[in-house]
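Record 1 of the preview.
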Amino acid sequence: MIRDEFGLSQGAQVAVLLPAHWQPAAVLLGVWWAGAEVLLATDSADLALCTVNRLDECDALETAVLSLDAFGAPVRDLPVGVTDYATSVRVHGDHFRPTGAGTALAGLSVTDVLTRASESAAAQGVTAESRVMSSHEWDTPAAMIDSFLSVLAAGASLCKSPPRTLAAQRRRLDTERVTVQI
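->
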């Protein structure tokens, strides 16, 4: 979708204005697979991927909006020229050849991001056998590396959970068999 629908190529910049959630996790991986750089603000971006409540930050950009609905429901009543992600992404195939690696995240190279993610995983005690629970947002490059990419770099499993009451959090930790909280 990044390459075929929006015409972006390796080195393009994509503003990802989305909360930490399983759907944006897939979006982030797709942006990187297409060889584009993820920005966490719209400065110099070629495309913005956002929720409807952040649409006003994307006035001058080509924009796709995610509903974050668990069943992939579209966003209703979008302005003309704004793409509904859920509707558009369905027509794009699952087979895709990456275009190469360059800058990955807010000016950091792919190598730098992977190195930092691996170091973060080791520092947090995350291994391939870990089941990790995180309630942190991915709103800065460091937060994205520490609470998302470090888990992937280690080959661990991630349970993304919003902040909860202590009792609800304990139940979730037990249900998910969490071994590491970050």
